[in-house]
Amino acid sequence: MNLSPNLCVLLCLVQFSIIDGGEVLELNGGSTVFMANTTRPFHPSKSLSFAHVLFLGFDLTYADSAGLRGYIAQDIVQLGRYYAKTKFGCITKCDSSDFNGIDGILGLGMPDAALASIPEPLLFAISDETGDPANQYILKRRIFTILSDNNAAELHVGGFDPHAISEGMHFMKCTSNVEYSVPISSLTFDGHELLNFGTAAQAHGRTTIPGILDSGTSCLVIPDSYNSGLFLEKPYSKLMNVMRRKVPFYITIGGRQFEIPYSSWWLDANDSPCVQPTPPGFEGILLGDVIFRSLAVMFDLTHPQVPIIGLAPRNPMYRLVDRSCGHMNDFKGCVEDQVGGGGMEKIRMEKRRGTPRRRVNKYLRRAGAQLS
């Protein structure tokens, strides 16, 4: 099973593929929710190495009530030049229109967040040297980087291209081994600090809030509550009182300040800001695609229990990889850029964008418990 370069990618916990024969569900008086004919499904019958693993499979319901059902299978899965035999979920039933036009979910999450029946997310499967050498081409550096723009995104497998950034990469330890969480100590807009930590909170050493890096969330999602006394003011409400165009955000992550340009957080197509309030009880910030359009975001899973996050401002001259390009050509995003013994490959990812979603991202269903 080859995961093609134009697969729409979401950061998530495990990997799933929509298979041929998946259902089209009609709800609300005949309104189609999921349309299987908009995807390019995986055809198990066309693979000689395909095998069922668990016939009982999985039945998942996410925080926004979206549901996926299917079974666990095993096959040789390829991402770019890297491939390995691994388990994945075959989706046979889906009731969410979010999956229209999407072929599946690429597993770039952490092992501790995976289902018990699918122990290895894809990045770990293609970097596992204990498998059959005849069925694998192994990634030597368990690192990936995501960059994005308004129309597409780019996945760097095995490292990052230094031409893509304008300053040095700033590294920090992830604050969780389940979610890609980083400490945020400040978020300012037009000179106004939105994260005013209370005196009592500061006295107890609470001067940061977790930020969850998630490319499957479109916008910057910030609290609209006092977070149990953490804040003196509601950050989102304060932002709405001072909101205006043509002004950047400044966010301090891991002790370093980064700019979120106006072009990254304002959606011209919708003529609206891509900033939303978090759902009640969610005591963190969701760093969605707004961040991936502003920064190069690197994930180093060399040591899974202590993941390293790298952040750096984007080089404005850098262009994402072109569909037809197959050679090295700086600033035009072409693919064969070798880094170290394991190599580094760039893969183009297509993107769908619509009205910003006013709900918690479904792939963070355990984030509330983790943050608490």
From TrEMBL:
Record domain Peptidase A1: where: 10-312
GO annotation terms (biological process): proteolysis
The organism's place on the tree of life at top rank: Eukaryota
Similarity remark: Belongs to the peptidase A1 family.
Protein keywords: Signal
Xref: InterPro entries: Aspartic_peptidase_A1, Aspartic_peptidase_AS, Pepsin-like_dom, PEPTIDASE_A1, Peptidase_aspartic_dom_sf
Signal sequence range: 1-21
UniProt protein name: Peptidase A1 domain-containing protein
Biological classification of the source: Eukaryota, Cryptophyceae, Cryptomonadales, Cryptomonadaceae, Cryptomonas
Single GO MF annotation: aspartic-type endopeptidase activity
